[in-house]
Design brief:
The chain is of the alpha/beta class. It has 2 domains: about 210 residues, Purple Acid Phosphatase, chain A, domain 2 (4-Layer Sandwich), CATH 3.60.21; about 60 residues, no CATH class. The chain contains 12 helices and 9 strands. The protein is globular, with a radius of gyration of 20 Å.
């Protein structure tokens, strides 16, 4: 059985270098166009005495401030990998999507987020690599989803066997991933797998912006164990919800924008459960269906229970 471990509290702030002289490496990801959350993380990071910062992708998508987020990351000069939402919005900007997606309500939010990006943002996002390795400390490999694909999520549900297979495909002993918006730490004989959680849209019922800091035990030159500090940073949630309104995203983004706002409020998935529910009920995923979905959905219950109830609903249909 999987045996995930997740340190839910911040460690003490660090204003100086590591006492053992080894680099401290921060990884943040899944900002999703949420500038207030990113600003809070940047302020926290500046107090942590880190030596290197990597970004795990999904700077954009699922939020209205993609261009501002890209500008802030670009200003900092931090290397980033490519996430699946970079690919989605690039495809929309270039018209390389199903023609129905260019007009349907379901994809109105994606059209808004793609149009909000500039040509310079597009070029930056298109330049991002699939994977990166830390330069200050050997042994850390970063991907957005898994070493296989940007949309291949690794999380607390992943088996030790699956994670070991992924570790076997890289040359490092620490695999850092993102994408699922849920922090995870798993230590295995082959190495360590960590999901850093999400800055802009957490799905672990914790509204705070989340990232992680990594540091090896022992002196330089020694192959010490990786230590992981999960950071949770409070930020002004009301500010980003207000930006949903003032930017026009909530009005223009249709049902998807409403679902993303619910994800922010509850720090748990709404969009994918809604789409699965609409599919089972054989209805179009439109705004008028949202009240019926909210009567069925229980945001506090585990997703496996939701999918079990959804399966029962499917079986009960004629």
């Amino acid at each position: 059985m999987p045996s995930p471990s997740y340190a839910s509290r911040n460690g003490p702030s660090r204003n100086g270098p590591s006492p053992n002289g080894r680099p401290r490496i921060a990884v943040l990801a899944d900002i999703h166009g949420n500038l207030p959350a990113l600003a809070a993380v940047l302020a926290d990071l500046d107090r942590q005495g880190v030596d290197e910062v990597l970004v795990g992708g999904d700077l954009v998508g699922r939020g209205p401030q993609g261009s501002a987020v890209v500008a802030r990351i670009r200003e900092r000069g931090w290397p980033s990998v490519r996430g699946n939402h970079e690919d989605y919005l690039l495809a929309f900007r270039r018209g390389r999507v199903d023609p129905d997606w260019l007009v349907s309500e379901q994809w109105a939010a994606s059209r808004f987020m793609a149009a909000e990006l500039s040509d310079r943002d597009e070029a930056f996002l298109d330049s991002l690599p699939f994977t990166l390795a830390a330069t200050g400390e050997p042994g850390l490999r970063l991907v957005h989803g898994s070493p296989r694909a940007t949309d291949d999520g690794l999380g607390p549900w992943s088996s030790d066997r699956e994670l070991s297979r992924h570790l076997a495909t890289i040359g490092e002993d620490l695999l850092v991933c993102c994408h699922t918006h849920r922090p995870m730490l798993r230590r295995l004989p082959e190495g360590t797998v960590v999901n850093v959680g999400a800055v802009g849209l957490p799905f672990n019922r914790d509204h705070r912006a989340q990232y992680a800091i990594f540091e090896r035990d022992g002196r330089r030159g020694e192959s010490g164990a990786w230590q992981v500090e999960f950071r949770q940073v409070p930020y002004d949630l009301a500010a980003i919800l207000s930006i949903y309104q003032s930017s026009g995203f909530l009005a223009a983004g249709g049902v998807t924008a409403r679902l993303l706002a619910l994800e922010l409020r509850h720090a748990t998935p709404y969009l994918v459960p809604f789409l699965k529910w609409a599919e089972v009920r054989d209805v179009e995923p439109r705004l008028e269906e949202l009240p019926a979905f909210e009567r069925f959905y229980r945001p506090e219950e585990p997703l496996q229970d939701f999918f079990r109830r959804l399966g029962e609903l499917s079986e009960a249909r004629p």
